[in-house]
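Technical note accompanying the year-one report. For the benefit of new consortium partners, we illustrate the data format agreed upon in the data management plan: each record pairs a sequence with a structure-token string. No post-processing was applied to the example shown here.
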Amino acid sequence: MPAIVVEGLERAFGDVLAVQGIDLQVEEGEIYGFLGPNGAGKTTTVRMLTTLLLPTGGRAAVAGYDIAGEARQVRASIGVALQEAALDPLMTGRELIRLQATLQGLPTAAGRKRADELLERVGLTYAADRRVGGYSGGMKRRLDLAAALVHEPRVLFLDEPTTGLDPVSRKTIWEEVQALNDDGTTVFLTTQYLEEADQLADNVGIIDSGRIVAEGTPESLKAEVGNPHIELSVADGAVEEAERACAGLGKLLPRKDSGRVLLEVAHGAADIPRVVRALDEAGIAVESLELVRPTLDDVFAAKTGYHLAEDEDEESAAEEGAPA
């Protein structure tokens, strides 16, 4: 049985339809990357799947339970770490995890043991007795992740878990997510970071303006976009001459700037010697050459007409009354 099944799911805020009839399926033991810019509908979808927001259309089941009719069973089966961690700054990390264990119904001794295990797992044993208000952003994200794991959920929802983190903290979160998945936890990961989805996800759903515009493995989606291309710069501004020399070796692409030639090739690195030889025979000196493979941003641009990377630093849309 799939871990998550979504059919025609919708959510309206007044006249704004934030999520517009999406369908998706996540298998047990999978990391599913939900990729899109701020305001695309990612957080609204997660809030519905975690029973924090009722859908206004369609249906969904998580861990075999209907999100509307069996919300209590859904909540007992999932762990949730939302974009903004709701952590009491006056509590210590250890106190917070022990409180979560109590709320989940664990006996006192078992809750203490579980708290110690989780603090060690996320690398916070050294800071366990410090107040959370003094934690860095990365430490807070790891503590929130630990809190979400207290009851050993079947499905873990992570809503943009690395937004705003430095590269080291981001890598630590990635490693923990991968380790959890290796242990059998299904992970639903929303992100606006292309590298994050590419690195972690078994399958990716790309959402834009409340609609899923593409879905598949990262490799299959990139393969849909086209072949890799060679990007090169040549000496003495001989760009037009270089394009003429390369014209029979692949498909010339529109230039990104006036000084570089872009040539789509069918065989990737195997085509580089032919290109270099053709330029040499034409008396054109190559200053730099790079083989560029399609990325998830290329997929996003092909499906939506704009690049996701352009939106990564924008502020999040308001949850109420607007798409999110």
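Partners are asked to follow this layout when depositing records. Residues 312-324 have pLDDT under 50 and may be disordered.
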